[in-house]
Amino acid sequence: MKIEGEHVFKGPREEVWEMFYDPEILASALPGTQSLKMVNKNEYEGTINLRIGPVSGSFNGNLKITNEKPPESCTLNVDGKGTPGFLKGFGNVHLTDLGDGTTLMKYDGDVAVGGMLASVGQRMMDSVSKIMIKTGFGILDKALEKKHGNK
Amino acid sequence: MAEKYFKQPILRNEDPRLLTGKAKFIDDITLPGMLHAAFLRSDFASAKINSVDVSAARKHPGVVAVYTAADFGDYWKPGPLQVPPPSVIKGSLFNARTLIPIAKDRVRFSGEPLAVVIAESRYIAEDACEDIVVDMEPLPVVTDLEKAIEDGSPLVHDDVPNNLAADVYQERGNYAEAAKYADVVIKRKILIDRCAGAAMENRGLIVDYDDRTHNMTVWATSQAPIPLRNSIAGRLGMFENQVRVITPFIGGGFGPKIMTSQADDVLLPIIAMWLNRPIKWIEDRRENFLATTSERDQIHFAEIALKKDGTILGVKDVFLHDTGAYDPYGMTVPLNTSTHTVSNYEVPAFVTQIKMVFTNKMVVTPVRGAGRPEGVFVMERLLDAAARELKMNPVEIRRKNLLPSNKYPYKSGIIGQDFVEGVLDSGDFAGNLKKALDLVGYDEFVKTEQPKLRAAGKKVGIGVVNFTEGTAVGPYEGAKVTVGGNGKVNTATGISSQGQGHFTIFAQIVAEQLGVDVKDVNVITGDTGHFHWGAGTFASRGATVAGTAVYNAAIKVREKVLKLGAKVLEVPESELELADGLVKVKNKPDKSIPIGQLAVMANPMRGTIEPGVEPGLEAVGYYGPPYGATGNGSMAMIVEVDPVTYAVKIHKCVIVHDCGTVINPLLLEGQVMGGLSMGVGNSFYEQLLYDENGQVMNASFMDYLIPQATDMPEEVILGHNSSPSPLNPLGMKGVGEAGAIPTPSCFVQAVENAFEAENIEIMETPLNPSKLFHYVKDH
After folding, report:
1. pLDDT value of position B760
2. Can you say how many angstroms the Cα of residue A114 is from the centroid of all Cα atoms in its chain?
């Protein structure tokens, strides 16, 4: 499944970048996250509950950040498995300072899924992932606002 | 004398039971102490197995046992080749890689079993599957047929280079010469994609082993109960008659239930012995979509050489056939494609080359049609391309090249799935075509209606195709007919039934010979305790091959009845007739004896029977044809495409079919209609989709589209021709797959014709609205 899109954050690039390294914010932005902990600087491990159409269940997996060019770009790699199947994918994230205190995030990636998730959940995957991304950005926006407000 | 029961439109004996919920299906069976099995299956399509840890699952409350490949010791081995290799075809290459019952170190398709859990209930067994921890290392996956045979592609089996499962070349005449002298040679790449068998009832197996009698009873949804019994007994070192396989009522077969080496077939019998408790397994729909068998992936590189006037000089077809991860069913499907590509047309030179390819997908075995729709599709597409090129009418080019009726038996020179040279035994292809054109109103439609509708902006098209169906192949079937003391007749045969109506048609054959009512003939199919010789229900052979065996047994019993009747009634046999359950003396209404009473007399308790006389009114009959009987026909179809949604409505569909002597016109209609429904699915709805990682993407009926009543043609007209087969005494031929075979070819031609103005050419099936939209818009 190909993922592609963009989003404008109302905050400076550095602050947006830092959010990727805050497990709490990250966990809140991924709906269904049960636990997420940073095991290395660029690596998280956690459990997430997913419901995609008729398929639901929990996934254990990790998230690695590679190709880091702070605060400009990085690649997020996910690898998880659970009772509903497995997923493995990457997303390239690119942040551009728009010069007005806002940041444009462009992303593109590819996620491969297998098992029940692929065979029965396929029809819902695209729309569910879009909703999850949208919800996630909404939460990140709020977190950024809060962070910004605190300063 | 006109037949009283045979050939008559008699309602089905089995329907009252089926329609009132009194038929017993496998999941209706419950045995005391019965356990339930569930399989943990691989999510990956290709992976190395590092470990399968079942320790937590074994502790799950209610779990009795959990097994992985390692637990089966020497019992674990790849299954047998269910169909022998095609070594009768000279120069053929075939790499047998048979099904592995439970993966040991490697998985090759998504859905392959990794562990089996036996528990007190299916719920517990399924839950415990989630406790199993599998450590697997994903390996590269290959799903694309053309990529699979390239050098450097990932290998499904490490020791099979280029994933080439088989390479079989056959030629009649000399195609290269034909092409040299042709006015035109047309080449096309033609794609056919995969579909599921999708029977209403999935597979199931119940095993009950009695450790005091050392007998095993197996209930199975099998199309091949006798081979299943033989393979179970063989694996366990038992006599065949220590294992009894019973097939209860089965909700559809369509091919995949022919398999006898699936995980459940192999593993559950020995587990039932180990645990000394009955075990039941009922396949769920997702397992059926992932890990039974399916069919039809082929890519053809086909060409046709013609004279300017449309006369065919030769056809060459080199095709890739996807066999999935293993090839336990040999080459039945692609060989059927080879024999059905040019069968009904006169083609002096013909090359057919099969390159069978391993991929990381579910195993391919026959699904209703079994390679035949693919062959017909290729030929009919080539003819349409040729008609366009030569500016000929599509009907004309077909009529010109049809095999004339004086050519039978016509030897094809091409060896088929039954490993004998394909022979067309009978037919009237021109008669079929004419009848189809008349019934669809071809001339009227093309000259008057179509222009009118087109002027009104309607996208309407018509298609007309021809086909054959090689049916009723060997090796043989048998039957036992027994008159009971109650005056009714038992008929047992080895083939099993999945809804075809055997309980009625075999009864009709027997009733006709013995003069009893059809309802008084009790037919038993697929129970090795009652009859245990035969091969199974496949290749549209049940009615013809088993039906002829039933006939052969019935006439032997008739002879015994007449002989004993003559003795008892003290008249010559020629003065007797069998009717109303009686042996009667002609023209003497008061002189008769009930057939049941004769049966009792045929089994005396004192005195002696005469030398050479077998007791009882019972006989066994067999029948094995030298080669298959040729079902054949023509189809015509009128479609309308919605110019906005690209949905296609089939307004009218004509099927003219020739299956020789018709045992029961009602059942024939049912068979053809059912096949048509499958054909409509294969044309526009059903497609089993795999992603590049070998994951099935539509493994449920939410996403896999089975045509519904509203998708069927608004009007279906059946026309019958009958050219009796010379191969069997009743002149029968098979019909089970007929409806499915020509439909995609006819549908695509009609859709192309609907867009005649746009001049689109479609070389694939199945279509769907989105694909069709792109054919038109991207043109």
Report:
1. 95
2. 19
Burial B635-651 (b: 16+ CB within 10 A, else e): bbbbbbbeeeebebebe
> What is residue B225's predicted lDDT score, i.e. its pLDDT?
97
Residue linked to tokens 């499958």: B678
Interface contact A115-B110, CB threshold 8 A: yes
3-state class (DSSP) for residue B570: coil
What is the 8-class DSSP label of residue B366? -
Q: Where are the alpha helices (DSSP H) in B241-284?
A: 263-275
In the numeric block, which tokens belong to residue B174? 């000399």
d(CA B372, CA B681): 16
Check residue B165 and give its pLDDT.
98
CA angle in degrees (0–180, nearest 5) for B202-B659-B732: 95
Whole-Å CA distances, A133 to A31, A144, B198, B632: 9, 16, 36, 56
CA distances from B226 to B214, B229, B233, B478 (A): 19, 5, 11, 12
Distance of CA B339 to the CA centre of its chain: 16
Q: Are strands B279-282 and B204-210 parallel, antiparallel or unpaired?
A: antiparallel
Contact B698 A119 (CB under 8 A): yes
DSSP string, B457-484: T-EEEEEEEEEEEEE--SS-EEEEEEE-
Q: Please tell me the distance from the alpha carbon of residue B553 to that of residue B542, in angstroms, as a whole number.
A: 15
Handedness of CA A133, A137, A138, A140 (dihedral sign): positive
Within chain B, which residues score under 70 in pLDDT?
Answer: 1
Residue found under tokens 């004769």:
B598
For residue B284, what pLDDT is reported? 96
Distance CA B678, CA B736 (A): 11
CATH number of B474-623: 3.30.365.10
Q: pLDDT band for A1, please (50, 70, 90 cuts).
A: confident
- Chain A residues with CB under 8 Å of B38 CB are none
**ipTM surpassing 0.90:** no
**Best of B43, B114, B132, B700 to mutate (most A CBs within 10 Å, chain A):** B43
Query: What pLDDT sits at residue A128?
Result: 87
For residue A118, list chain B residues with Cβ-Cβ distance below 8 A. Answer: 110, 691, 693, 695-697
Check residue B405 and give its pLDDT: 87
Retrieve residue B83's tokens.
Answer: 């169909």
CB-CB contact of B464 with B437 (8 Å): yes
d(CA B753, CA B733): 33
Determine the distance from the C-alpha atom of residue B515 to the mean position of all C-alpha atoms in its chain, rounded to a whole number: 33
- Of B498, B36, B494, whose CA–CA distance to B221 is shortest? B498
pLDDT of residue A150: 57
pLDDT at A129: 87
B442 in Cβ contact with B395 (< 8 Å): yes
Residue B127: closest C-alpha in chain A:
A83
d(CA B690, CA B360): 10
Residue B25 pairs in a beta bridge with: B249
| Residue of A79, A119, A123 for testing the chain B interface, max B β-carbons within 10 Å | A119
Give me the residue spans of the domains in chain A.
Answer: 2-150
CATH architecture entry for A2-150 = 2-Layer Sandwich (3.30)
Asked whether the bond before B615 is cis by omega within 30 degrees of 0, the reply is no
